[in-house]
Design goal:
By secondary structure, the chain is α+β, with helices and mostly antiparallel strands. Helices cover about 30% and strands about 30% of the residues. The chain contains 15 helices and 36 strands. The chain has a 15-stranded antiparallel sheet that branches. Helix 8 packs across helix 10 and helix 13 runs parallel beside helix 15. The protein starts with a helix and ends with a strand.
């Protein structure tokens, strides 16, 4: 068995037959495109460029978005002018927002009234369409290259013939009132160049989109508002339309960059596109190989991997991070400015990346926080007369503020710290810790100044638990975040050997911080939202967000704490909620909620709230719901947030399950399998050589430990502690095998 486990865990094998049912199928055009909110359209993307596909067969329209294409109202202002304006415009949106880039439309009149079939293949990150009527049958394969900002649309004519026009339009569809753009024809390409702001300042966001037909002769023409390339396609012929999308953050001369990229693709021809596609698919195969789960439930597995598809399509570490609707922005006025909404939406999509061993993808999360830091310190000083950082609800990239609305909440900067701390504890990457330490220190400074010590305890005043709930005292969310941040600051300052003189203050706050407020409901003691103010609300999961994502309560907590948390989850019944999906299910798993009901409820959400593009959408925004399924399943399969590994802590005893390469606190990568009511093995890779603390899954037997394949010793006890070395792999088996 030892050799079999080692070999079995060495790599994650992608078996294509497993993915056949993990496909989004469209038998009619999507309905919600264009939209100012989340779309139901087929989705493509490479973490920077996003493409959503709409329209009938005769007019397939590729709506192009880009994460870095934001209007910036502060351009031309000095730093002082900007701050003065923001302070004067208290409570108002500033004008900063993400906007759409434009569209590529394929006009194919011969396909009028054609049958419609489109499949969104998440394994290969491509869409495949089949359109037919009595005049023509066309197959289309589209993908956004994982390696380059290029949309490739391959067409093959299976029967008949058609005339095809590829038309480019800048800005919102359906209007010619698009400003700050030009377009034209050059070197067999059609193109437009578009600016998000007026003026000639170098900071203005600019983007160029250029398209070219490869594999067929085409004719290009300028149509004033639009440009298009036209050609014919007959039975047995194939061609490709290649579209490059380049901003001035990618290359200073974005139009030249787009045209040069098209020239490279054209020189390679259709055969070269096949190699490009293989490279694209190779990136996605590596992405899927980061970790895996097998739980015997095709529905949950489908939406588990679909969630990662959406995140992998809209996020990259070295690019502008996605806002509410990712890179699929199809209007110039998306709801809530398409912003980084800081009271849970911006944070949520990352929750499953740490446990899911996709750390590289998550490493760009810190960028917007660090960019905002100087302005956040000024706002804390000007508005609250304290040190630290004070954060409005809506931010954008590069230090942008999309609104000066706080909704009475003081917790946004602390909520933003959650993922910084997850990243640290799951990796113990000291370079990352040093990078984010200044932000975390400012959050600690804020609470040192904002907390009030009265009657021997620290109290939080005038901090709303819900938006504008006008609460007086001790919201439970902020109490959890204070514990999270200051506890982490003690750990970080020790690991980094910094600020040792401040630890005593942090420890004093932690030991004297107000308890979580409680109340009685239906004969049970449950968490109250605030000590003075809102007591309960039938929306959201704020009453248990100190459980997840803050991680302040779990199965290693005292029996009294755990009982209150369990009863609160049971009393809340937030299974279908506008804003709770990314956190409530994971919190329920963390406190050991009935796993059978949890799986059934989770599956019901997937079935009831999923769209044809395999996203789950409850209405509170866009991409944040991608965290719901991965975060919950990971907490059911493996927990480590309290410093001790627990295998299958919230899993039905009679259901088989298997996971590979999930990540745990302490920089451990863990694989295991549940079969016949117990764990068969545990395979642990220690990245940093930290001490491994493990709840023994075989408490009635000894545990046999192999280090890098060598039999070492047998250990016993309910809790095991094993020293490890960096890069070492440990295999743990029940001692009687």
């Amino acid at each position: 068995m030892e050799a079999k486990v080692w070999n079995d865990q060495d790599e994650i094998i992608i078996r294509e037959e497993q993915w056949k049912d993990r496909t989004g199928v469209f038998r009619r055009p999507p309905a919600r495109i264009p939209t100012d909110t989340w779309t139901d359209a087929p989705l493509l993307g490479n973490g920077d460029v996003g493409v959503a596909i709409g329209g009938e067969a005769c007019q397939q329209t590729y709506y192009i978005g880009k994460n870095d294409f934001w209007t910036q109202p502060h351009l031309g202002e000095s730093g002082e002018q900007r701050v003065d304006r923001l302070l004067r415009d208290n409570g108002r949106r500033t004008g900063a927002r993400i906007i759409t880039v434009g569209q590529l439309s394929l006009l194919m009149p011969a396909l009028q009234d054609a049958s419609y079939l489109l499949e969104q293949d998440i394994l290969n990150a491509e869409t495949r369409s089949s359109f037919r009527n009595d005049r023509a049958h066309i197959e289309i394969c589209s993908w956004v290259s994982a390696a380059s900002n290029v949309l490739v649309t391959e067409l093959s004519c299976e029967a008949g013939e058609l005339e095809l026009s590829a038309r480019l339009h800048a800005g919102e569809s359906g209007t010619d009132e698009v400003f700050h753009y030009d377009n034209g024809v050059e070197a067999e390409a059609v193109w437009f160049r578009y600016a998000a702001n007026p003026g000639s300042l170098p900071e203005v966001r600019r983007v160029a989109v250029a398209s070219r037909v490869i594999g067929a002769d085409s004719q290009s023409k300028w149509l004033f508002q639009n440009v298009e390339a036209s050609c014919k396609l007959r039975a047995g012929e194939r061609l490709a339309i290649v579209t490059a999308i380049v901003s001035n953050l990618d290359e200073p001369d974005c139009l030249r960059g787009a045209l040069d990229r098209l020239g490279e693709y054209a020189a390679e021809g259709l055969d070269g596109l096949e190699q490009r596609k293989r490279e694209h698919r190779s990136w996605w195969r590596e992405y899927w190989s980061a970790s895996s789960v097998e739980i015997g439930d095709p529905v949950l597995e489908k939406y588990y991997y679909a969630s990662y598809y959406i995140i992998g399509s809209c996020m990259r570490p070295d690019k502008t991070q996605p806002g509410l609707f990712g890179n699929w922005v199809t209007t110039d006025r998306p709801k809530w400015t398409g912003s980084y909404t800081m009271n849970y939406n911006y944070e949520s999509p990352y929750f499953g990346l740490y446990t899911g061993n996709r750390i590289d993808l998550a490493s760009g999360y810190a960028g917007p926080l660090l960019a905002f830091l100087p302005l956040g310190k000024r706002l804390a000083r000007e508005k609250l007369s304290c040190r630290g950082i004070y954060m409005p609800v809506e931010l954008g990239p590069d230090g942008m503020i999309c609104s000066m609305m706080y909704h009475g909440q003081k917790s946004n900067a602390s909520f933003a710290a959650v993922n910084l701390l997850m990243h640290f504890y799951y990796t113990y990457d000291m370079d990352y810790a040093r990078m984010v330490y200044p932000y975390l220190l400012e959050v600690a400074d804020f609470w040192e100044d904002y907390l009030v010590l009265e009657d021997g305890r620290y109290v939080i005043y005038d901090d709303d638990i819900h938006e504008r709930s006008h609460d007086r005292k001790n919201p439970i969310l902020s109490l959890g975040f204070v514990r999270m941040v200051l506890g982490a600051m003690i750990d970080l300052s020790i690991e980094l050997d910094m600020d040792d003189d401040r630890r005593s203050k942090w420890r004093h706050i932690l030991s004297h911080l107000s308890d979580y407020p409680l109340m009685e409901r239906n004969g049970k003691s449950v968490y109250r939202l605030t000590e003075e103010g809102m007591s309960w609300n039938d929306r959201n999961s704020l009453a248990v967000q100190h459980v997840f994502p803050a991680g302040m309560i779990g199965l290693d907590s005292s029996s009294d704490e755990l009982k209150i948390a369990q009863d609160t989850v049971a009393e809340m019944q937030r299974w279908s909620d506008f804003n709770a999906f990314p956190t409530y299910y994971a919190a329920a798993a963390r406190v050991g909620y009935d796993p059978v009901e949890l799986l059934n409820r989770l599956r019901a959400e997937c079935e009831s709230y999923s769209l044809p593009n395999l996203s789950i959408h409850h209405g509170g925004g866009g991409i944040e719901d991608t965290a719901g399924v991965p975060a919950c399943l990971h907490e059911m399969l493996l927990q480590s947030h309290q410093g001790i590994l627990r295998l299958f802590p919230a899993w039905p005893r009679d259901r088989e399950a298997k996971f590979k390469k999930l990540r745990a606190f302490g920089a451990f990568v863990v694989s295991s399998e549940w079969q016949n009511g117990e764990a068969r093995y545990i395979l642990v890779e220690s990245e940093r050589g930290r001490r491994l603390k493990l709840l023994n899954p075989w408490p009635d037997r000894g545990v046999k430990v192999y280090r890098d394949g060598t039999d070492e010793a047998t250990f016993a006890g309910d809790r095991l502690e094993l020293e490890t070395k960096p890069g070492e792999r440990l295999l743990l088996l029940p001692g009687n095998e």
